[in-house]
Design goal:
The structure holds 2 protein chains of 2 kinds. Chain A is α+β, with helices and mostly antiparallel strands. Chain A contains 5 helices and 11 strands. Chain B has 7 domains: 1-159, Ubiquitin-like (UB roll) (Roll); 162-289 and 409-470, FAD/NAD(P)-binding domain, CATH 3.50.50.60; 302-404, FAD/NAD(P)-binding domain (3-Layer(bba) Sandwich); 492-556, no CATH class; 593-650 and 744-839, Gyrase A, domain 2; 653-740, Alpha-Beta Plaits, CATH 3.30.70; 885-984, Elongation Factor Tu (Ef-tu), domain 3, CATH 2.40.30. In chain B, the strands form 13 sheets. In chain B, strands 8, 9, 12, 13, 14, 15 and 28 form a 7-stranded mixed beta sheet that branches. Chain B has a 6-stranded mixed beta sheet with strand order 41-42-43-40-34-44. In chain B, strands 45-48-47-46-49-50 form a 6-stranded antiparallel barrel. In chain B, a hairpin with a 4-residue loop joins strand 47 and strand 48. Classes of the chains: A alpha+beta, B alpha+beta.
């Protein structure tokens, strides 16, 4: 076991939490991520592997399929982001390579992203100040690619009153600032 | 001061009495007042001075079309010039000042312009200030700008925040008058997602300004009840204080919500305004209509207003501009104002109706067929002179004159995508044409339907048609009964005998100016606008354009529709620049990207610089160092002597996988990549399709089907985009997958003769870093510090024995601390971008300065890298003769002949003895630094036939900065030209 201590994307040893009115914004670092992109001609095999992993069909366009402990959302044609708890799947990419074999190209993405959970009454009003997503019509289990204050993000709907926002790790501070400013403004 | 012109009734809240200031006076008003209504209630008609002639002016309207009553609202940093008093919602403690006057509003010295008006006709500036040309910018323009103008800026940062937001709906309804409310009710009750926007703080449009009954109650009561019903519907969003400012592509509308403008200061964290981008499936424009004035002699005195505005002030705001009011009209609507004023107890001294068949009244005197011949009153109207139909003049004392020349539908938004309105003879007005922005329809007065019943019905019908189009079953709303009076108008545009009659009151354009423009052949309506400034400035001619067109038509002997209209463009009303910026200003203009070692570097006192969006350490000052060069030189020397560490995370990293990954890279790099062995790295040059170099970087082969490609920091995104284009569009049959991993890995360069020894202290057992086992350009996936996975590359940008080591980003901070701790015995230093730049210049390595979008591989001295043995992007066009001239620019090194001299980047190279002219230019300097290793300034640059001119002494010139000295052309590889250090 190595002896280097990790930091959260916002720079703290512990994740950061903010509360404005009834909405909580939490930095949630406990997710391992890996991208899965089907190899040419292996699209069906790849989707089948993912389906087996999820116990459901591989997510279609704009969808996020959640199983325990694995979930996956659609990123592009024949391309998905697979998510698992970092505590049990720190080497998620390596695990997926074993499962998918040559049907997919797997790339570790765990530290490429900062993961924010936003929960509470008023998240839709907050998101209306952030991203050009029809958030009122975004169902639970949907995933959208969008832009918040010039930063590319994925927005995932985990519950009627909860969203997940994935943004680039290096600009985590700017994304946090944008989200928090919108919360103070909208709530 | 008492509210001497306050009437009974109205929609103001008298339980709230507020104090406010205008210029040096304080007044009282009520909640629900505008600044204009409160001032009028206090007997103040004079609210501004005109743009050019500094004529006294008062409000002409009661809405956003106001040309005259524009003031500086608030004070200090929140001061906002050119704000319409007619739309400013009163709040307790409001402060406003008049503008464009000196020393005071009542006595304005610049009123002398009015006496000199004969000299200031249209085109005056163009004709007068012709000579000498240089005087225009330095003398004439500053004087004119001081003399003529609007409000002044605070010149301080705006302390308020502005947001941008995004809304979506089935139906956007623009305007909350009778048509808009009926439409919202229809669509809302049918279950459609509706957004209803209205610029007013009280929704209802003219229902709040009129007295007639709607469904057995007042129009205002019906509006309030309907708004309450709509607000209770979860599928309807009612947005007061929200102006739709523009109609854009794909059903997208811009709307500005004034969240906090009715407050002295926005609540903590709340924005002043929000710019909404509303994506609608359909839009229904219910923007109403604007009453137009009639043009007559001295028609601009304070107290002369739209008749509908006088009525609005009386009915909604319970105020009158004066106790004695006259009306001048060409249609029946003017008589409605007279009736309402009588009902309010205001004396209507006369209604002058231009029609000989004007209706009569038992409540007031009517002069049928009369026209206003002259008005009196220096700071406000005191008397009018009426030319009687049977000859003779009648003088009538009055403090206000309501003028009604008919109504113009507010067609502006129908024209934002190129549509032109069409002339309706019956209404004597332009109405929307069939060419509307896709998805838009129009209802109510905006469509020329002027009765209340007609507006309600057309709003409901418009909504039903839209719902049917969207496949939503419409329910029929129970519309209330309302008046259905037809329009009765005989067009009358201007009194022809007038000498000084204002058409555009904001720009001081008179009927005479329009005639002059025609006389001087500015007959096109667009030329008329620009020559006279008719329809420009903050009101964009909402009250003046049609009268201007009518007068132009008359002098040109054309019909009004033949003259045409100018183009309406967004925004519909003046919009604060801040709301377009949103939150993106100051340090928040754009996102900031931080490297994994940022916190650690900050602890070391690093000085940061922007590299694109990234903040990178530029140098790390030590105690006693007073100049950046001292830090930089130390970092270079210590790295060359022992070991240095630099965060290189910002360089782009792209994961390239797939069975055809090698072949794919062979296409995008001009040099061979297909045969790169696993475990090796190769420098690569990527060309644009046109043969110019796009970027350079490395490709590391981690497996047969897996590469990691690096890019420069600046080109990380463009290269990724290029690779995706190549993958998806040029070679869709290749099995290759791409994803960026720039952010996933923290990467550090460990450089210097002791770099191997330092790394050996942190790599795990079994990782052999010896030159034999891990030679120059090797790469491997390893573990460090007891099991953390890492990637190690033996590559060197600095020219030293060097490695780049990458770990998952969350461990980047811990790794840099570990490297510095482990390196203590070697006196390890962190080095910043300045030192890195010095080392790469010493080594002759190129970067963005040399890969500047104009250079080829040949220019860079890498012509032979463009493989002839394969086809790659850009390779064919790099062979163009123009790019391969015998005297093509070549990368060279430059050293000053006098070691004290600098070799500044940007300076140009001239052959000794040649004149310094562009045609003699031999090349230019791209990168320059002081080399502590060589003890002098050095530089890289491009020189014609440079590779064959090594040893030549050449002239370095920069006429702009006064540089002119000699430099020696040398090899670009200043330091360790054989590469012995990096292969050690």
């Amino acid at each position: 076991m190595h002896d280097l201590a990790p930091l959260c994307a916002l720079g703290g040893a512990e994740p950061h939490t903010d509360q404005v009115a009834g909405v909580t914004l939490t930095e949630t670092p406990g997710h391992a991520l890996a991208s899965v992109a089907a190899r040419l001609g292996q699209e069906t095999a790849c989707a089948d592997h993912l389906g087996t992993l999820l116990g459901a069909d591989a997510p279609g366009v704009g969808a996020w399929v959640r199983s325990d402990p694995i979930s996956a959302f659609w990123m592009g044609p024949d391309q998905w982001m697979v998510i698992a708890p970092v505590a049990t799947h720190e080497d998620l990419a390596a695990q997926l390579i074993q499962r998918f074999g040559t049907s997919a190209s797997i790339t570790e993405q765990t530290d490429a992203w900062v993961w924010f959970d936003m929960q509470g009454d008023g998240i839709e009003q907050v998101m209306q100040l952030c991203a050009n997503i029809d958030i009122e019509k975004m169902p639970v289990g949907a995933a959208a690619r969008s832009v918040i204050h010039y930063m590319g993000v994925y927005v995932l709907r985990s519950a009627p009153d909860a969203l997940t926002i994935l943004g680039g790790r290096s600009s985590a501070g700017s994304l946090h600032h944008a989200l928090l400013t919108a919360m103070k403004s909208a709530l | 001061m008492s509210q001497k012109n306050r009437l009974d009734g109205g929609l103001i809240d008298r339980s709230e009495t507020w104090s406010f200031g205008f210029d040096s006076q304080y007044y009282k008003g009520h909640k629900g007042d505008t600044l204009a209504s409160a001032l009028l209630a206090n007997g103040v008609r004079l609210m501004g001075r005109s743009f050019k002639y500094h004529r006294p002016r008062g409000p002409m309207t009661a809405g956003s079309e106001e040309p005259n009553a524009i003031v500086e609202l608030r004070e200090g940093a929140r001061k906002e010039p050119n704000t319409r008093a007619t739309t400013i919602e009163l709040y307790d403690g409001l402060r406003a000042n008049s503008q464009n006057r000196w020393p005071s509003l009542k006595f304005d010295a610049m009123e002398v312009n009015d006496l000199l008006s004969n000299f200031f006709a249209a085109g005056f500036y163009y004709k007068t200030f012709m000579w000498p040309a240089a005087f225009w910018e330095k003398v004439y323009e500053p004087i004119i700008r001081r003399a003529a103008g609007l409000g002044s800026l605070s010149l301080q940062d705006d302390p308020d925040g502005y947001d941008k937001g995004f809304l979506h709906c089935d139906l956007l309804i623009i305007g909350g008058g009778p048509a808009g409310l009926a439409a919202a009710l229809t669509a809302g009750e049918s279950g459609a997602r509706v957004i209803l926007c209205d610029e007013d703080f009280l929704i209802g449009g003219r229902l709040n300004l009129e007295t007639y009954a709607v469904g057995g109650m007042t129009g205002a009561a019906w509006a309030a009840e309907t708004v309450a019903r709509l607000q209770a519907m979860p599928n309807v969003r009612v947005m007061p204080r929200t102006t739709v400012i523009g109609a854009f592509d794909h059903g997208i509308y811009g709307a500005v919500e004034r969240v906090s403008d009715h407050l002295a200061v926005p609540e903590d964290g709340k924005p002043r305004q929000i710019l909404w981008r509303i994506t609608s499936k359909r839009a229904l424009l219910c923007a109403g209509a604007t009453e137009r004035p009639i043009v007559f002699e001295n028609n601009d005195r304070p107290g002369i207003m739209q008749a509908s505005a006088v009525r609005a002030y009386a009915n909604r705001w319970a105020t009158t501009p004066a106790q004695q009011v006259a009306i001048f009209t060409n249609n029946d609507d003017g008589h409605r104002t007279a009736s309402d004023l009588v009902a309010k107890g205001v004396e209507v001294v006369s209604v002058i109706d231009t029609r000989v068949d004007a209706p009569t009244s038992s409540d007031y005197d009517v002069i049928a067929g009369g026209v206003i011949d002259q008005t009196w009153g220096r700071l406000g109207l005191t008397q009018i002179e009426v030319k009687m139909p049977k000859g003779g003049i009648r003088r009538i004392k009055c403090g206000a004159l309501g003028v009604s020349g008919g109504w113009n539908p507010n067609v502006h938004l129908t024209c934002h995508q190129g549509g032109r309105p069409v002339w309706n003879e019956a209404l004597a007005a332009f109405v929307p044409s069939g060419t509307l922005p896709p998805g838009m329809t129009v209802a109510g007065a905006a469509d020329g339907v002027f009765s209340t019943h007609g507006a309600l019905q057309s709003g409901a019908d418009g909504a039903k048609a839209i719902l049917a189009d969207l496949g939503i079953k419409a329910t029929d709303p129970a519309l209330p009964e309302a008046e259905d009076t037809p329009v009765k108008i005989t067009p009358f545009w201007h009194v022809k005998t007038a000498k000084r009659a204002w058409v555009d009151q904001q720009n001081d354009v008179t009927a005479k100016d329009i005639k002059l423009a025609h006389q001087e052949n500015y007959v096109s309506v667009e030329h008329l606008k620009r020559y006279t400034t008719l329809g420009m400035a903050t009101d964009q001619g909402k009250t003046s354009n049609i009268a201007g067109l009518a007068i132009m038509a008359e002098v040109a002997g054309k019909a009004i529709p033949e003259v045409g209209t100018t183009m309406f463009r967004p925004p519909y009303t003046p919009t604060a620049m801040g709301v377009f910026a949103g939150r993106a200003w100051g340090m928040e203009t754009r996102p900031t990207r931080l490297t994994p070692s940022h916190a650690w570097a900050k602890e070391q006192g690093a000085v940061f610089t922007e590299a694109g969006l990234w903040l990178r350490a530029q140098w790390y000052p030590k105690p006693g160092e007073t100049h950046w060069r001292q830090s930089c030189d130390r970092e270079v020397m210590q790295t060359s002597k022992s070991v240095g560490v630099c965060d290189v995370t910002s360089l782009g990293k792209i994961d390239v996988q797939g069975a055809d990954a090698a072949e794919f890279l062979n296409k995008v790099y001009c040099n061979g990549m297909a045969k790169l062995p696993v475990g090796k790295v190769r420098y690569g040059l990527m060309l644009r399709e046109d043969g110019i170099v796009m970027d350079d970087g490395t490709a590391a082969r981690l497996a047969e089907d897996h590469f990691v490609v690096t890019t420069t920091t600046a080109k990380a995104v463009p290269v990724y985009r290029h690779l995706e284009f190549v993958r998806q569009c040029l070679y869709p049959d290749m099995d290759v997958q791409l994803i960026s991993t720039t952010e996933a890995w923290a990467q550090f360069s460990v450089a210097g003769p002791n770099s191997r020894k330092l790394l050996e202290k942190i790599v795990d057992d079994g990782v052999d870093l010896s030159n034999e086992a891990f030679p120059f350009m090797a790469c491997a996936e390893i573990t460090i510090c007891g099991g953390l996975r890492a990637r190690l590359f033996r590559i060197s940008f600095s020219g030293e024995l060097a490695y780049e080591i990458a770990v998952p980003t969350r461990y980047g901070d811990a790794l840099v601390r570990r490297l510095m701790q482990a390196g203590e015995e070697f006196d390890v230093v962190p080095y910043g971008l300045e030192a890195l730049n010095v080392m790469r210049i010493e080594k002759g390595h190129v970067t963005g300065n040399e890969l500047n979008g104009t250079t080829t591989a040949l220019n860079l001295g890498m012509g032979r890298m463009v493989s002839k043995a394969k086809d790659s992007i850009g390779s064919k066009l790099s062979e163009r003769p123009g790019l391969n001239e015998p005297d093509a620019l070549k990368l060279v090194g430059l050293k000053p002949v006098n070691p004290e001299h600098k070799v500044p980047a940007g300076a140009h190279l001239m052959t000794k003895g040649d004149k310094v002219t562009a045609s003699n230019d031999q090349g230019y300097v791209t990168s320059a630094c002081y080399s502590p290793n060589l003890g002098c300034h050095i530089a890289l640059g491009f020189l014609k036939s440079g590779d064959s001119r090594i040893g030549e002494t050449i002239r370095l010139v920069s006429p702009l900065t006064g540089v002119d000295h000699e430099v020696e052309v040398v090899s670009p590889h200043f330091f360790d030209p054989e590469g012995e250090r990096l292969r050690a």
